Amino acid sequence: MRTPILAANWKMNLNRREAKNLVEDLLKVAFPVQQREVVLCPSFHLLTEVGGLIEGKANYGLGAQNVYWKESGAFTGELSPAMLRDCGCSHVIIGHSERRAYFHESDKDCFQKVEAALQNNLVPILCVGESLEQREAGKTKDVVLGQLQGALKGQSLSSGDKLVVAYEPIWAIGTGKTDTPEGAESTIAVLRQELGNLFGERIAQQVRLLYGGSVNAANVDALMAQPNIDGALVGGASLKADSFARIVNYQTQASLAN
Ligand code: PEP
């Protein structure tokens, strides 16, 4: 059984006071959590503060939104994996489509970041996803498989729980448009199959595969009901305690039946 992950990508939002209020409000309604993990990914300046607020809170983890692959040196403006660990991070988002689009991150960059994260005991949350144009041209699966292979082929992975992959169609990010649960499931199932080719079936069955793209309180239950969807990477709806708490407390089919 894979433990679901609900990850919050706050992007470049919130000051220290707002972040503190958000985490405190969230913990009131979404803690304790059982059989699921919550990963908060604030911007760099909030990492230690947010880390302090969730310290000792079981099943809560801290993630960064980016990392550089070098250990140290003259790389102005960058943070190393060891620095992220020093801030209390357990996870790091790699290859988000905004980084690929605005900061020209390539699959090779993603490979180096994933490698550095794994070597430093940080769980990479590798993002893949197609543009609207690519989707309309019927290229979704080719695009996401290319991104997955580019970042992962040749990595050494001892166990699948050390890796998270998020399928985030670009046209669904921040737009209010979501892939259908069946559509997301079908792409994610293809990604899992490819993880099997790259790392073997045992590891592929352990990797958590998330869906991201306008996940909200109203659509999370249906997405999470899909067999290969192991969680969500959430942007906009993670900035409000009530909506993210509802996502964390998503209803399973079993609980809906009761
Ligand atoms: C994201 O930034 O990863 C994301 C999925 O954003 P949103 O939930 O706002 O679409």
Name the features.
single chain, 258 residues, alpha/beta, TIM Barrel, 8-stranded parallel β-barrel, globular, binds phosphoenolpyruvate
Outline of the structure:
With 258 residues, this protein is of the alpha/beta class. It has helices spanning 16-29, 47-54, 81-86, 97-102, 107-119, 132-136, 140-152, 181-199, 201-206, 220-224, 241-248, 253-257, and strands spanning 5-9, 37-41, 60-64, 91-94, 123-128, 164-167, 208-212, 231-234.
What does this protein structure show overall?
- By secondary structure, the chain is an alpha/beta fold.
- The chain has one domain: Alpha-Beta Barrel (TIM Barrel), CATH 3.20.20.
- Helices cover 42% and strands 15% of the residues.
- The chain is built from twelve helices and eight strands.
- It has helices at 16-29, 47-54, 81-86, 97-102, 107-119, 132-136, 140-152, 181-199, 201-206, 220-224, 241-248, 253-257, and strands at 5-9, 37-41, 60-64, 91-94, 123-128, 164-167, 208-212, 231-234.
- The chain has an eight-stranded parallel beta barrel, surrounded by five helices.
- Helix 10 (220-224) links the parallel strand 7 and strand 8 (231-234).
- The radius of gyration is 17 Å and the shape is globular.
- 43% of the residues are buried.
- Phosphoenolpyruvate (PEP) binds at residues 9, 168, 173-174, 212-215, 233-237.
